[in-house]
Write a structure and sequence with these properties.
14 strands, coenzyme a biosynthesis, two-stranded antiparallel sheet, alpha/beta, 9 helices, DNA/pantothenate metabolism flavoprotein C-terminal domain-containing protein, binds ligand 9Z3, phosphopantothenate--cysteine ligase activity, Rossmann fold, CoaB-like_sf
């Protein structure tokens, strides 16, 4: 639940909060490597694709960010997200011809692995005559499909996976990706399904060592994470088609909050979902309509992301025809 949704933060205050967030964040350990990968991926996908037009590129964010409580982190606050939404959506975007930058929380659900058991290495294989190991007959179709689809996406240069853990890593990486994608213009899309922390402990006020329980009850001040959505729209990638998500546990306030986010952050679409029914139904909120999207229960294995991505791709096509609408 986002407590700042109803309050207007003046632009200068927001700019100062954003500056302070990035200044206080510990620098990314592999920033040069990420930057190199992004340059190569975006360079390759800016070239005209088979049909002569530029390939569409989407940044899918997935999983929850953590907020460390100590610099040498033993404890942290986490945000709920299994990463299923982001992983499934990535697969449908690739099928629709998009190149995907999958910015995901380490250890969460991965594209093409949804139909595999939780620990595929241990559960999908069996030892025959040692030292031979083979895929168990019962899993062979799912394993074959996962490997084939994944390798095809990577070989065609359509999938770049970038992992994060903390809110500091997530926002720095999102900024790098958005600035790199700016040159793509309207064919670029942001699909922001990650569950992002609302509060954090600034690095400069964070203790170095493990907090001691002997010191008594813990009294800690968390600062609000500045909302980066408006700066993404305004400065980082102004022409990109932007979709954010609104998660609530109280159905009564969900659509109102989604509407507010749409206007406040100038999103093109906000996908509203409620925690318990998120796999069955979402509501897509735009300036002109509210569309309910359901999982097709008549087909086994179908998920709500299938019709959702179909709708988003349609709306992105309309946006490409006329970005000013
Ligand atoms: C979502 O609402 C996602 O749909 C879920 C997906 C996290 C619910 P799972 O990963 O679940 O499939 O298990 N993501 C956005 C959540 C969020 O933090 N939104 C912020 C808010 O609601 C706006 S950025 O205030």
């Amino acid at each position: 639940m986002d407590v700042t949704d109803g309050l207007e933060v003046p632009q200068e205050t927001l700019d100062a909060e954003i500056k302070s967030f990035f200044e206080s964040a510990p620098p990314l350990k592999n920033g040069d490597d990420i930057s190199e990968k992004l340059k190569e991926f975006i360079g390759r996908n800016s070239l005209p694709s088979g049909n002569g037009s530029a390939r569409r590129v989407v940044c899918v964010t997935s999983g929850g960010t953590t907020v460390p409580l100590e610099r040498r982190c033993v404890r942290y606050i986490d945000n709920f997200s299994s990463g299923h939404r982001g992983a499934a959506s990535t697969e449908y975007f690739i099928k629709a011809g998009y190149a995907v930058i999958f910015l995901h929380r380490r250890g969460t659900c991965q594209p093409h692995c949804r139909s595999l058991p939780e620990d595929p290495l241990l559960e999908c294989f069996e030892v025959t005559d040692e030292p031979n190991i083979r895929v168990r007959q019962s899993d062979s179709e799912a394993v074959k499909r996962a490997i084939t689809e994944h390798h095809a996406a990577v070989a065609e240069g359509l999938l770049l996976k970038l992992p994060f853990t903390t809110i500091f890593e997530y926002l720095q990486m999102l900024q790098m990706i958005a600035i790199s994608m700016r040159s793509l213009g309207a064919p670029a899309m942001f699909y922001l399904a990650a569950a992002v922390s609302d509060f954090y402990v600034p690095w400069r006020s964070m203790v170095e060592h493990k907090i001691q329980s002997a010191s008594g009850p813990l009294d800690m001040r968390l600062v609000q994470v500045p909302k980066m959505l408006s700066v993404l729209r305004k400065d980082w990638a102004p022409m990109a088609f932007c979709i954010s998500f609104k998660l609530e546990t109280d159905k009564k306030i969900l659509l109102e909050k989604a509407d507010m986010a749409l206007k406040k952050y100038k999103m093109h679409m906000v996908v509203a979902n409620e925690l318990l029914s998120r796999k069955e139904e979402v509501v897509v909120v735009t300036t002109n309509d509210k569309l309910s999207v359901h999982r097709d229960k008549t087909h086994v294995g179908n998920d709500v992301e299938n019709p959702l991505i179909r709708l988003i791709v349609e709306r992105h096509s309309a946006y490409l025809e006329n970005p000013n609408l």
